[in-house]
């Protein structure tokens, strides 16, 4: 049996096909089958300040002095960060910086090393 996607509005698992649409019997939401296929194909792409695509495990270099919120510490220009992890949200990168600890960075302030 084929696995149908959950409803994008209420996350119900009881969706069914109706012609070229999916329909949710719980909230009556309808959406095209093509949209679900395109959504699965498009993965989020994170790029650095130079436009290079970043991936989990890459090493990056900080291109601007960054103040750490809640402390007087500063991440200096040229700081190399190894083994980054890409996440969803305001800050694209989770990492651990020597001397500072775990923190989130925005991809616009790093370049691929």
From TrEMBL:
Residues 46-113 form the Protein YjdM C-terminal domain. It holds the Pfam family YjdM. It comes from the Bacteria. Signal peptide: none annotated. Residues 3-32 form the Protein YjdM N-terminal domain. SUPFAM superfamilies: Prokaryotic SH3-related domain, Zinc beta-ribbon. InterPro entries: YjdM, YjdM_C, YjdM_N. NCBIfam families: phnA. Belongs to the YjdM family. This is Zinc ribbon domain-containing protein YjdM. It comes from Vogesella amnigena.
